[in-house]
């Protein structure tokens, strides 16, 4: 019996990943260097501390850079790009259906809490989520299970009583490590990666109902 649904944030609710990559790509290009998509995708779904583009740029250049100035430049460019992004297709409809069924609704994200909550507030979705767990709430971020287990613990339900929605292989690994069913919805950044470990892979949430998802993952309904 499904009692809750846990969303990832970056790349699943809001496409932050492509703007972040493009902002760094432009900075690398300004220094005569290339930042490849292939190298970047391995970072997706992990903690922001797991990869430092400035250190990578220094290695390519063979000299130090003004990290503070570069990070400030990136932050501004990234913010400008992300402000143009809206909620990804099908997300709001699914959130509405979950809330109408009075199911638990949460977020498990490897990003910082202020980042996630700030964007949710901008999108008018902050109050929709009962529980939000981010990098500062656990010892290990994705692909470890900690974030998902933290949300489940808050709700007092078992892993098999909820399912996860993810856009990255690392996120799927985290949900599976927690013992959950996981549905993958790859985005433009992750669509060419392997999702063999997901229980279900969808091209988009657009036009997909909660009932259809439950049927496809073989769940035996939701709590009354």
Structural description of this entry:
The protein is α/β, with parallel strands linked by helices. The protein folds into 2 domains: 4-15 and 87-217, Rossmann fold (3-Layer(aba) Sandwich); 17-82. The protein contains 9 helices and 6 strands; from the N terminus they run βαααααβαβαβαββα. The protein has helices at 17-30, 37-41, 53-61, 67-82, 91-100, 113-123, 146-155, 169-177, 210-217; strands spanning 4-7, 104-108, 131-133, 162-166, 181-184, 200-201. Strands 3-2-1-4-5-6 form a 6-stranded parallel beta sheet. α8 links the parallel β4 (162-166) and β5. The mean pLDDT is 92.
Q: Work out the helicity level.
A: 40-55%
Low-confidence parts, pLDDT < 50 over ≥5 residues? none
Number of domains: 2
Q: Would you give the CATH topology of the largest domain?
A: Rossmann fold
Using only C-alpha atoms, the radius of gyration works out to 18 Å
Helix count from the secondary structure assignment: 9
* Shape summary: elongated
Largest sheet: 6 strands, parallel
Spatial strand arrangement across the major sheet: 3-2-1-4-5-6
Please give the CATH architecture of the largest domain.
3-Layer(aba) Sandwich
Give me the secondary-structure category.
Answer: alpha/beta
pLDDT average, as an integer? 92
The tally of strands reads 6
The CATH H-level superfamily of the largest domain is HAD superfamily/HAD-like
Distance between the termini: 10 Å
Estimate the strand proportion. Answer: 5-15%
């Amino acid at each position: 019996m499904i009692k809750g649904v846990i969303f990832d944030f970056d790349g699943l609710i809001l496409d932050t990943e492509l703007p972040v990559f493009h902002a760094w790509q432009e900075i690398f290009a300004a220094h005569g260097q290339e930042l490849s998509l292939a190298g970047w995708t391995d970072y997706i779904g992990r903690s922001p501390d797991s990869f430092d583009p400035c250190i990578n740029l220094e290695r390519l250049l063979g000299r130090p850079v003004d990290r503070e100035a570069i990070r400030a430049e990136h932050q501004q460019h990234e913010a400008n790009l992300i402000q143009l992004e809206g909620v990804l297709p099908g997300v709001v409809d699914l959130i509405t259906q979950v809330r109408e069924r009075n199911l638990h609704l949460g977020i498990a994200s490897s990003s910082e809490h202020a980042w996630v909550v700030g964007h949710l507030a901008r999108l008018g979705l902050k109050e929709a989520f009962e529980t939000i767990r981010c990098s500062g709430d656990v010892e290990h971020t994705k692909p470890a299970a900690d974030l998902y287990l933290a949300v489940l613990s808050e709700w007092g339900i078992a892993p098999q009583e909820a399912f996860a929605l993810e856009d990255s292989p690392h996120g799927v690994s985290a949900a599976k490590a927690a013992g959950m069913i996981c549905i993958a919805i790859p985005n433009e950044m992750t669509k060419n990666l392997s999702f063999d470990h997901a229980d279900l892979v969808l091209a988009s949430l657009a036009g997909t109902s909660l009932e259809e998802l439950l049927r496809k993952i073989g769940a035996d309904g939701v709590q009354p």
